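To whoever is on call:

I kicked off a structure prediction for a single chain this morning and the downstream step that reads the tokens threw a length-mismatch warning. I double-checked the sequence; it's 278 residues and nothing unusual in it as far as I can see. Pasting both halves so you can look.
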Amino acid sequence: MTLPVLPRAGLAALTVLATTLATAGPAPVRASALFAAAEVDQQNFLMVAAPIGTRGEKAQLNIYEQLKPVRPCFEVGAGLPSPVNPLLATFDFTGICNRYIDANGYSVRVGGQDLATSYRLMVTRSGGDMLLLAFPTKAGAGPEMVVARTQGSAPGFLKLHLEPGWRLMRRQFGGRNLGHLYVYADSWPGTAATAAQPATSTPALPAQPAAATGTPVPAAAAPTTRPAASVPSSRPAAAGRRVLPSTTRPTAVPPATESAPAAAQQPVAPPAIPATKL
């Protein structure tokens, strides 16, 4: 069978169409939109710093879940740090307990962001404590976060106490619960803090004139409707006292800068009024 030969223009059009169909697929779905998070009963779970290695100097995160109350899956001792007896290791716990021991069973989530590919959970020693850290594995993924701590150091299995703001949730897909847990926080550390309110300052009161000491009166405290004296006082001016001009009428006498004896000051005679002829 001989296939028809297409002209060059038709072949080019088919090539463009095929390329468009190949690249016009749906955009990749982000992990934050692909999976949801569902609440769990926190009392059914226990986060543990489980020792690893021959000497137990290092530890990793284990999470135990009590599915059915047939028999206890773990036992927690008193005090801090709190020792843990993983009872599920002593019997067949199928259908009774769950155990999450690596990144296949748990990951970090903050709000709507699934951080399974950019963060990992690790237990590390810090002084006399053991910390569960959410550690970024990619540049720019976010800050290093303290998720939980044992509140002390001791050999063996120790309970990890979650820091404020952190809890466990279950991963969901299409409304169906999955066998994967989130170590979850509603928001990034520090972003939920309220902004500092501006400080309210009390305005300083104006200084009051001191009658006995002759303290100068500040300009801001001087009354604005004080009338000006047209005749100088017969009393000698106090040393260092300054007479302020009126704000509504110019004064007839300049302010005194030096004290003068009372005998040298004479009253000012009123201006003569010419007689009016009738």
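Update from on-call: the warning came from a stale cache, not from the record. Cleared it. Sanity check on the structure: The two ends are 145 Å apart (CA to CA).
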